[in-house]
Write a structure and sequence with these properties.
This protein is mainly α and about 180 residues long. The chain has one domain. The protein is about 80% helix and about 0% strand. The chain contains six helices and no strands. The longest helix has about 45 residues. Pfam families: CA109-like.
Length: about 180
């Protein structure tokens, strides 16, 4: 029993390391998302030539600045894609840890009563396996939520400002004239 508990503790240490990695990835993804939003907000300002003031007379400045911002945005999107792959890798690690824990319990010839036995403050072996499985399911679910958010952002329609403006011009034609 003590040897099995020692093996489960190793699995939990690995799970804790993966959880630390998960937290790092989550912080990185939030930072990348905030940076992407900042660039997108900046693009709106850069599209309007009246925001350039005296620099508006510099040949090609608007296109150059917009191009640089688009390059930066593309780099951030690539980084976000890599971060998402790392999230998936972490989920796979949790799955492996949970599977190994389950196999550890099944692999031994331990009677059911002993699997449920608690000694002192130690959890039962079944509780160890259940805990690893729960940790895996929680992170798999969280990764699915992140994937759903990504899909939501990708599926959002691109709202054409020109089209919206033409609607306003029709409605407020009297005021525009």
């Amino acid at each position: 029993m003590e040897a099995m508990m020692k093996k489960f503790r190793q699995k939990y240490r690995r799970a804790r390391d993966e959880m630390d990695r998960w937290d790092e990835l989550q912080s990185r993804l939030v930072s990348q998302f905030v940076n992407a939003c900042s660039i997108i907000d900046r693009l709106e300002v850069l599209r309007d030539t009246k925001n350039y003031g005296i620099l508006g007379s510099v040949n090609g400045i608007k296109e150059t600045l917009l191009g640089k911002q688009m390059e930066a945005l593309e780099m951030i999107f690539c980084s976000m894609k890599e971060t998402m792959k790392e999230f998936y890798g972490t989920v796979m690690s949790f799955e492996k840890i949970a599977s190994d824990g389950n196999q550890l319990l099944r692999g031994g010839s331990i009677p059911t009563a002993q699997k449920q036995l608690k000694i002192g403050i130690w959890p039962s072996l079944e509780e160890c396996v259940d805990g690893l499985r729960t940790i895996h399911e929680m992170h798999r679910s969280d990764a699915s939520d992140i994937g759903a958010l990504r899909q939501l952002l990708m599926d959002q329609p691109n709202i054409s400002t020109d089209e919206v403006q033409s609607i306003f011009e029709i409605i407020f034609a009297e005021e525009i004239s």
